[in-house]
Amino acid sequence: MSEGPPPTPSAFARTASVFRREFVAYFSTPLAAVFLVMFVSMAALLTFQVGGLYVRGQADLRSFFQWQPWLGLFFMPALGMRLWADERRSGSIELLMTLPLTTRDMVLGKFLAAWAFACVSLALTIPLWITISWLGTPDHGVIFAGYIASALLFATMLSVSACLSACTRNAVVAFVLGVAACFILLFTGLPVVLDFFAQWAPKAVIEAVAAMSAMVHFNALIRGVFDLRDLLYPVSVVIAFLWINARLLDWRGSR
Predict the structure, then answer these.
(1) Per-residue model confidence as pLDDT tens digits over 116-160
(2) Phi then psi dihedrals of residue 63, to 5 deg
(3) Rg (alpha carbons) of the chain, rounded to whole number
(4) Which of 112, 113, 104 lies closest to 24, judged by CA?
(5) If 0-12 CB within 10 Å is exposed, 13-18 middle and 19+ buried, where does residue 13 land?
(6) Is it the case that residue 192 has pLDDT exceeding 70?
(7) What is the Cα–Cα distance from 174 to 51, expressed in whole angstroms?
(8) To the nearest whole number, what is the mean pLDDT of the chain?
(9) In Å, how far are 48, 193, 204, 209, 219 from 197, measured between CA atoms?
């Protein structure tokens, strides 16, 4: 009696296989250690030295979280620039397209692996939290909210960087595009930008521009204010750019 064809893996299983492959690959080279050491070192330096944690004399991590957008502005495009650019440059993307995986499986698996790695780098800064707890009595709820906000901000930046990585074969070009796009995404809510629109645009347009700023939503979350709009913003941006990422790969694959 002949056996039937093997069961088709579910979408979750296919995405999980891509996730495992990509996540393990991060730790197969010394670049992962270099990335993690640089991120944690820069976070500590900006928090204690530039942020003046000891000078302020307050037991909180406000200075740490205030620097997260700037760290993410460079580290997230550096993490996302190779997701697709290297695949296209080496030609391995054609091999990926022949595997029993959908474009959605590959895009989501690669993104989740990169985000998990970013969250690992963020988790390595928890000793700062422990240090603050030893020095005083911080509001742990606010600190926890800050970590959640940072993780969501990194997810937003990674989705943008990954999408732009699919547009080019050059990882350096992908990095520059990622930094520029993330800068725009972060700082559209700055007073200097809003003042520019205030000179000619109606109030509704100004409010819409401010709402597009990742920094506005991030600042609300690190204060411990969990508004549904601030949580939906990063989720919506991630879904939108992952969808665009998949469409770009399908379009380029059909050419």
Answers:
(1) 999 999 999 999 898 888 877 888 889 999 999 999 999 999 999
(2) -65, -35
(3) 20
(4) 113
(5) exposed
(6) yes
(7) 30
(8) 84
(9) 36, 7, 11, 9, 21
Q: Please, what is the Cα angle at 22 between 123 and 38, to 5 degrees?
A: 40
Nearby residues of 10 by Cβ (< 8 Å), 6 or more positions away: none
d(CA 63, CA 70): 12
Report d(CA 123, CA 202) in Å as an integer.
43
Tell me the two tokens of residue 166.
Answer: 């699919």
Measure the CA–CA gap between 164 and 81, rounded to whole angstroms: 8
For the segment 18-27, the average pLDDT, to the nearest whole number, is 90
Selection from 165, 138, 143, 152 nearest residue 215 by Cα: 152
How far apart (Å, rounded) are the C-alpha atoms in residues 5 and 189? 55
Distance CA(249)–CA(221), nearest Å, equals 33
Q: Look at residues 70, 53, 71 and name the one whose alpha carbon lies nearest to residue 61.
A: 53
Please state, in angstroms and rounded to a whole number, the distance separating the CA atoms of residues 156 and 161. Answer: 9
